[in-house]
Amino acid sequence: MIISVLTQVFIFYIGGLLILNKKLSIGILIIILNYYSSLLDSIQILIEFGKEYLSAEASYDRLKKSVKDSFLRKKITKKSVKKIEFQNVSFEYEKNHKLFDISMTLEKNRIYQLSGNNGKGKSTFIFLMCGLFKDEYHGVILYDSLEQKELNIEKMNEYMISICEQDPYLFDGTINENLCCKTKKEKRADLRRLLIDFGLFDKINSLDNKFETQISSLNTILSGGEKQKIAIIRTLISDGDVLIFDEPLSALDKKSKIVFQEEISKIKDKIVIIISHEELKKIKKNIVLIKLAPKEENEI
Ligand SMILES: Nc1ncnc2c1ncn2[C@@H]1O[C@H](COP(=O)(O)OP(=O)(O)OP(=O)(O)O)[C@@H](O)[C@H]1O
Ligand SMILES: [Mg+2]
Fold first, then answer.
1. In the chain, which end has fewer C-beta atoms inside a 10 angstrom radius, N or C?
2. Mean pLDDT score across all residues of the chain
3. Angle at which helices 254-266 and 188-197 pack, to 10 degrees?
4. 206 in the same domain as 167
């Protein structure tokens, strides 16, 4: 930035001198400045492309490894879990910048609230738990005494864990498919009740194709809060033993925040993890608080 400003000042200075000496016209100086500006834009695009490329390459390597793992190595398929143990689990994206260092046990029939300032690694911790960085963390993650590294991660995420992401993801398909992709048919009665309680039932029925309306990740039919509600309901009715909600309240209105907490308090036989900066007043007394921080700051 400083270099580009200095270069521009330099061009102006030299250009000014040349114009004064009648060796350059103002028109030519403007053309030179235009070329200089497009050159800067191109350099910027190249730098951005370089960054995007590196990040895409890392994701591609992870994906390749995971596909290779599931095809080549014999992995254990686990469809249910009672207890998840973290033994000195730490992770860093950049060398010597440890996000957290944590030891704890998560058990069924408990609700855990994960807190910590922005950027402390809460979402990363959830990704870790779901097996996204399975060869990159330190420590041990045990699912009922089986090491995560030995488990078939794809199956684990298909059957055992359901996550409501911080940026709710809607895939290309109908509203119905988006709601029911992780649940069995018998949960349809619950689904109707949840849609009514969250104030979505009438909204969906007012659409031309109702529950068969096509939506996508780029959808513009639904508001941010409505998208978040779909992701929450999808997770609430899912069959997995572990339900994770990453900032589920961020786009919800007051009434829906209460509905969410009431629904959470009804859940039985599951490990529930909620990442939130808000005080969950309605379920406060049943919550185990976890603060995510590097070991020296850890207050668990
Ligand atoms: N793929 C990545 N590569 C490098 N650094 C990353 C990557 N993803 C996240 N980070 C960095 O890791 C840190 C933790 O990110 P994370 O999203 O886990 O934080 P968070 O606690 O969920 O924050 P928030 O409360 O804002 O949601 C941040 O500083 C972020 O910039
Ligand atoms: Mg986050």
1. N
2. 87
3. 150
4. yes
Which atom of ligand 1 has the smallest separation from the CA of 247?
Answer: 27
| Boundaries of domain holding 87 | 83-297
Point out the ligand 1 atom lying closest to the alpha carbon of residue 124.
Answer: 18
The tally of domains found in the chain comes to 2
Residue nearest atom 30 in ligand 1 by C-alpha distance? 119
Phi and psi angles of residue 283, each rounded to the nearest 5 degrees, phi first: -120, 10
For β-strands 146-147 and 138-143, DSSP reports them as antiparallel
Could you give the C-alpha distances from 242 to 31, 158, 180, 229, 299, in angstroms and in order? Answer: 62, 11, 17, 19, 24
Which tokens belong to 173? Answer: 């398909």
Nearest ligand (C-alpha, residue 245): 2
Taking only the tens place, the pLDDT of each residue in 90-144 is 999 988 889 999 999 999 999 999 998 999 999 999 999 999 888 889 999 999 9
Pair of tokens at residue 300: 């668990």
- Which residues have any ligand 1 atom within 6 Å of their CB? 93, 99, 116, 118-124, 166
DSSP secondary structure of 70-87: HHHS--B-----SEEEEE
For residue 9, how far is its CA from the centre of ligand 2 (angstroms)?
Answer: 42
* CB 98 within 8 Å of CB 121: no
| Whether 20 and 161 share a structural domain | no
Distance of CA 82 to the CA centre of its chain: 24
- Alpha carbon distance 31, 20 (integer Å): 17
